[in-house]
Amino acid sequence: MHEALWDEIVQPAASWSHVLKRGTILRITDTEGGANVGALFYNFECPVERYNMPDTLKAQHIARLTKGFVLYSDMGRILCSLVDDTVGWHDPLGGCSNAAMVRAQYGEGAYQDLRNDCYRNGHDSFLVELGKWGLGPRDLVPNINFFSRVDVGPDGGMAYHAGNSAPGSYVELRAEMNVLAILNTCPHPLDPAATYQAKPVQLSIRRAGPVAADDACRLSRPENGRGFTLTERYFL
Amino acid sequence: MTDDAYTFIIPAGEPWMREIKKGQRFRIVDLHGNQAVDTLFYNAHDYSDRYSAQDTIRHQRNIYLTTGTQLISTNGNVMLTIVADTCGRHDTLGGACANESNMVRYAIDKRHMHACRSSFLKAVTEWDHGMTKRDITSNINFFMNVPVTAEGKLTFEDGISEPGKYVEMRAEMDVLAMISNCPQLNNPCNAYNPTPVQVAIW
């Protein structure tokens, strides 16, 4: 394995963004267990090309994310591949919290009183971090929640699955393009906890080898083979 | 529906766009059955505040849209409420087809085939209020049946709609509605036969 280019902690309820370079791997580790990482991904060179939840789900016939699956943009290309995962289920459905939801669930948690333990929400965190790259509300699309799980019942009912991620669990994203990643560690919007309990995560970035002809994500579905072909053509 | 209602038949493969005022009713009729009606809504006074699939399903803790569903915007506003539904279930996870997603899903040589997101792009461009591809987000597929299994699989099941089934909404704020009457020819969801639908506003 290539050695880490750098490691970094994202504190609880904090935001982070970076342009993941094509051919690097981002490992996100839930150091304490029970973390949630809201995530959005954009083609850095043309951010109107962005992670597309429906294309990701329907191309792979999935409503969860784990090792072997990929994250599609709305242009038929693969932004990132999930090359490793010790969790088994990451949520693509639940979305993010907003200020009204957080206030209703946890009460007031203003900076004036709590300083940097204030109750940040996913919606505003995404908008602030997107704003740093010249992006805004029009660029806010359905997000992923790494380390969280939402079960869907036969009647369509959605239920938060507690205890999905154990301490030390990690997921690895290999960037297949130059991908602007926008992350935050705000709690999952369906987490029923009565107190605000955001968790930190550790990030580690390293170089990856070239995507092999027999790469597991490329071969996991015929759709993904075509997705890799279209992504590779973008760089020709 | 009142006698003076606005009505329009959207041919298969065509877009449609119109404002609906707060308090008005908006009905979509699946004239021939199992036609995918790809639909987006915007706050008529701020297009950056728009229909949010994730906020809508999370708010009601259910992935299916039907009578009683409140359609929620990215800013948390209730845009419309579904007040009648003779179909029983509508999808908001499957999204809209595109030239590019068709290449991934079916074959790379399918690029030329007409697709919903091309209709959406044509509609927002002709609307001429500064909307672009940035404004095309995850939509509703009225009359489509896309269940999720306990194992986390997304399945595309046979339609449960029939000729004449309809869904009716009440606008809770002034909204701009945009429809692509889906032209998909690669998917059995519409029996490979896209058909017209009727919209009505009163």
The number of domains of chain B: 1
Large-scale geometry of chain A: globular
- Largest interface (C-beta under 8 Å): A-B, 50 and 46 residues
How are helices and strands ordered from N to C of chain B? EEEEEHEEHHEEEE
Alpha-beta classification of chain A? alpha+beta
Mean pLDDT of chain A: 97
**Average pLDDT across residues of chain B?**
96
Give the tally of β-strands of chain B.
11
Residues in helices of chain B, as a percent range? 10-25%
Summed up, the helix count of chain B is: 3
Q: Could you say which structural class the secondary elements and strand pairing of chain B correspond to?
A: alpha+beta
Strand order, largest beta sheet of chain A? 1-12-3-10-6-5
* Tally of contiguous helical segments of chain A: 6
Strand order of the largest sheet of chain B: 1-11-3-9-7-6
Looking at how many chains there are and whether they match, the oligomeric state comes to heterodimer
Number of domains of chain A: 1
